[in-house]
Amino acid sequence: MILSIYVPFACDIPAQRYRCDYCYHGNDSPPHGLRSDYSAMKMTSKPAHSAGFPALRVLILVTGLALAACAWYAFSHWLHRDSDVTWFPPTSSCNLHAAPCSATLGDKGRITLAVQANGRIDALEILPLEVEVDGVTATQVEVDFIGRDMDLGLHRFALSAGAPGHFQGHGQVGICTQSVMPWRARVILETAEGKVGSWFDFDVIRS
Known about the structure:
Blueprint: H1 8-11, E1 23-24, E2 35-36, H2 37-44, H3 52-79, E3 85-87, E4 101-104, E5 110-115, E6 127-134, E7 140-147, E8 156-158, E9 160-161, E10 166-171, E11 180-191, E12 194-205
Parallel strand pairs: 1-2, 3-12
Antiparallel strand pairs: 4-5, 5-6, 6-10, 7-8, 7-11, 9-10, 11-12
């Protein structure tokens, strides 16, 4: 009579945590009180934690970050929307670092932008801004700074009205890893006939 047969390769595999106290290794049905190897291992095995959960969590996190980045990109472009602005290109070049720059808005007047930068516009420096409007009534004036070669985010600043045709406020250009960053200062006027604007290009040298 066989009470117990110990077979290490079939019943005691530490990595799988199989335990078989009374196993029967024959091909026929086991005698009363004994279990076959397969049923014993199946009933006493302890399933390990699925290795797929950490990978799934990482995938969910990466997907969430990608969606957030896409949402921010779309929101930034929505804020930068200018399809409702009538643009008038500047007719002459100027050095915005050192002197005010002016542009004619067709037959709708003229704007002049001054940046009080003591001769040099630096990144992250608080810049006093002044806009003079001639020949047109503006209910609101905004100045924004955009990268000419790359999207550096939203840098838009609403100016406060002072004397008639005079608007002032503060602005700031962002920092960039490039040694020389090409920027564009855009002046946008809200008028009774819609939005009009022009721009002035300048470069910022990294300190």
